[in-house]
Specification:
The longest helix is centred in the last third of the chain and has 28 residues, at 340-367. This protein is globular. Helix 9 (193-201) packs parallel to helix 10. It folds into two domains: 53-67 and 342-441, Alpha-Beta Complex (Aspartate Aminotransferase, domain 1); 82-338, Type I PLP-dependent aspartate aminotransferase-like (Major domain) (Aspartate Aminotransferase, domain 2, 3-Layer(aba) Sandwich). By secondary structure, it is an alpha/beta fold. The termini are far apart. Strand 2 (158-161), helix 8 and strand 3 form a beta-alpha-beta unit. The chain has 16 helices and ten strands.
Length: 442
């Protein structure tokens, strides 16, 4: 390790020694190392060999399809104008002028506006940005809710969510210093609004920051946001949706109402306060990123409070984001998926994953009853079942968890049917499961 003492040695007497022909031995050793490109050829070859197996990843919500060629054409156009060739930075609020001229705020604003329209946010009352990940989007939603509720009531809220919520929500609750209230679940794994009402009644003097999950991590259940909103009436609250996966595909189906900010027949009735959607799950964006969308009214209220603890002079405005420097390449690239030209392919993918999820659970229920396969609802692309052999787990990169079913604990695995999991892949998976079942029975 290059310590301060050693650095000063190099920069002073050490440099003089180098100038006089005496070189520190460690510099000679560094120069004698093998060319890193040559040393890494085997690593690159190993990664290349995995490309043919990418469609066998069934246990995690990752779209392993390669984006369409038009996406890479768009990426090249961005490179041609300098984006991703030198330091671009999306520091601050994308809806304000940035002191750094080399940014992609214009693409970021349009991306947020387009997706906000898809989620039926008011056209002139929208704010958001492209985050580093779904967890980053959840963090901003929870922090915004915490700040607004404390500003309104003078009391730090308690966080309400279920054990089925993504594990990052618990981490963020701890990070934000929030006391957690776990809400019981219904048989399908979704939040129980009756228990939520009871838990709120037990804490009448503290506001509630509720994190509802639209597509729980393992079971693929959907928390009932309208019943949740009804349960919190009369209680100071902020409702954030973690819709990392389902928020990607539901808007492109006939079930879009499940995720809309306001319903067509109730244009002035908000169903939630903010939403987080991952870019790298359903959309197949090649690197982790997330959408965070809320209303401009919420942002204005939040930013007024946020500005009291933040000195905006350095960047000429209150940024409204926890992170300071932000990736400028991702918003410019993900803009592609917000365009009408991409919607046809996204719609096709959304319909395919629900149809294939139906196919998978029907085939498993008829051919593999011993695994007791379950699908939370017809809106879910997730099927969970009793854990197969380790060989199957490894081949298909299946996620596993221990679940309590009928007052007994069992090991389960699940398949998340993503766009790459076509009938050919699922047929191979089913055949392997049948062979595995027979082999284990012998």
């Amino acid at each position: 390790m290059l310590t301060r003492r050693r650095f000063l040695g190099y920069s002073g007497a050490g440099m003089l020694a180098m100038a006089s022909g005496c070189r520190p031995a460690n510099l000679d050793a560094l120069q004698d190392r093998q060319d890193p490109w040559s040393a890494n050829q085997m690593l690159l070859a190993d990664k290349a060999s995995r490309i043919d197996r990418q469609k066998l990843v069934l246990g995690y919500p990752i779209n392993m399809n390669t984006p369409p060629s038009a996406f890479f054409d768009w990426r090249q156009k961005l490179i041609d104008v300098g984006i991703n060739t030198f330091a671009y930075n999306n520091v601050g609020n994308p809806f304000e002028k940035s002191p750094i001229p080399y940014n992609s705020h214009d693409f970021e604003r349009e991306t947020i506006k387009n997706f906000a329209e898809l989620f039926a946010f008011p056209q002139k009352n929208t704010w958001g940005f492209l985050s580093h990940s779904g967890t980053d989007s959840n963090m901003h939603g929870m922090y915004m809710g915490r700040t607004i509720l404390k500003g309104r009531t003078g009391v730090i809220p308690k966080a309400y969510f279920t054990v089925e919520a993504h594990y990052s929500v618990q981490i963020l609750g701890d990070l934000l210093g929030l006391e957690t209230v776990f809400v019981e679940t219904q048989p399908d794994g979704s939040m129980d609004p009756i228990d939520l009402r009871q838990k709120l009644a037990a804490n009448p003097n503290q506001p509630a920051l509720i994190v509802a999950t639209i597509g729980t991590t393992f079971k693929g259940a959907i928390d009932p946001i309208d019943h949740i909103r009804e349960a919190v009436k009369g209680h100071a609250s902020f409702l954030h949706l973690d819709a990392a996966l389902f928020g990607g595909y539901l808007p492109y189906t006939t079930h879009a109402d499940e995720i809309l900010y306001q319903l067509p027949d109730q244009p002035n009735s908000a169903r939630y306060d903010s939403i987080a959607v991952s870019c790298h799950k359903f959309f197949g964006f090649p690197s982790p990123a997330g959408l965070f969308i809320t209303t401009a009214d919420h942002f204005s209220e939040f930013n007024g409070l946020f500005g009291k603890i933040h000195n905006p002079e350095y960047i000429h405005h209150v940024p409204g984001t926890i992170t300071c420097s932000r990736d400028a390449v991702k918003p410019a690239e993900f803009y592609f998926f917000s365009q009408p030209s991409a919607s046809a392919n996204l719609t096709e993918d959304a319909h395919a994953i629900l149809q294939n999820a139906s196919y998978l659970v029907e085939q498993m229920q008829s051919r593999l009853t011993n695994l007791q396969p379950i699908r939370a609802s017809h809106l879910s692309n997730t099927v969970y079942f009793k854990k197969p052999s380790d060989k199957i787990i490894e081949k298909y990169s299946l996620a596993t968890m221990q679940l309590s079913m009928n007052q007994q604990k069992h090991d389960y695995a699940h398949v998340v049917v993503m766009p790459h999991a076509n009938r050919e892949v699922l047929s191979e998976f089913l055949a392997d499961l049948e062979h595995d079942t027979v082999t284990r029975a012998l």
